[in-house]
Amino acid sequence: MVRLVISSDGPAAAGGWREIFHSVAPELDVCSWYEPGLDLAHVDYALVWHPASEDLARMAHLKGIICTGAGINHLLHDPGFPLHVPLVRMGGEQTAALMADYVLWAALGLLRDSRTWAVQQQRAVWKNNRISRTCSEARVGVMGMGHLGGHVARHLHHVGFTVAGWRRSARDLPGIQVFSGNDALPDFLGELDILVNLLPSTHETRGMINHALLGALPRGAGFINVGRGNHVITDDLLRALDEGQVGAAVLDVTDPEPLPADHPLWRHERVTITPHVASEASREAQARYVRDVIHQMERHERPALLCDPARGY
Ligand code: GLV
């Protein structure tokens, strides 16, 4: 029997995870990382979020590690991570659909300037900020057109936004203009009403969203960050917002995260902050995905979201 150990969400979640796996994948033998006397020699796979470095090092002989996060930068940068063990990122239909819904919500909110309504409501102000622009009159650009970025782009396109994408290498997506490589960045950014960040967090992309990049957007463009906080130079974003270069922002991730209570972004009239919640699939959906990945790996197939440590995602 294939054995899966779960460390994700800590000891308190172990019973819940077990029950869920029992119903969606009774063929798996599921145990908790926190079981006294756990014998790792008889474990095949691990499901983790952000284990301690020494716990990761103990997973060196496993057949695979599956992360409950779609972003795995924290694992790859951990000195204890056994780089030879295949690492698979969280995926599945619900993860992608939740992200696509969040970005749609954020994009529509930016389009209609819903932050102004929220601020006005707090002050009991009844004032029409007339906006007669539909999504088909707005152009959204998605940076990072991988698994999640592709879903987001298709979802926005389906609703009626004009959608462009930017990524490292070329990719064809019907109805979506995909730019690739650094040379294409100015052309990509220069036409956008809303920029969405869904890049993976790597050495190349950290700090990429800085004064110069934000300055390449048309004045007043909106910004949605659902990637990682460390893609953005926070002070540059704040300055761009204060100067009106960025019209408004929706931030699900920040740097640092969470922001300190006195950080000006918290109370900024042009900023909506959510607590890193854009795309967290239910445990049932995650368990179904993990089951499918394990079955693939047992058949010696390559899971679609297998991480390439050299690439960083
Ligand atoms: C959350 O940010 C994730 O990586 O899934």
Secondary-structure map:
Blueprint: E1 3-6, H1 14-24, E2 29-32, E3 45-48, H2 53-57, E4 64-67, H3 73-76, E5 87-88, H4 93-111, H5 114-122, E6 139-143, H6 147-159, E7 162-167, E8 177-180, H7 185-189, E9 194-197, H8 211-215, E10 221-225, H9 234-242, E11 246-251, E12 271-273, H10 283-298
Helix pairs in contact: 1-10, 4-6
The structure holds glyoxylic acid.
Residues 69-71, 90 line the site of glyoxylic acid.
Description:
The protein is an alpha/beta fold and 313 residues long. It has two domains: 3-91 and 281-298, 3-Layer(aba) Sandwich (Rossmann fold); 93-273, Rossmann fold, CATH 3.40.50.720. It is built from ten helices and twelve strands. The protein has helices at 14-24, 53-57, 73-76, 93-111, 114-122, 147-159, 185-189, 211-215, 234-242, 283-298; strands spanning 3-6, 29-32, 45-48, 64-67, 87-88, 139-143, 162-167, 177-180, 194-197, 221-225, 246-251, 271-273. Strands 8-7-6-9-10-11-12 form a seven-stranded parallel beta sheet. Strands 2-1-3-4-5 form a five-stranded parallel beta sheet, with helices on one face. The mean pLDDT is 97. Glyoxylic acid (GLV) binds at residues 69-71, 90.
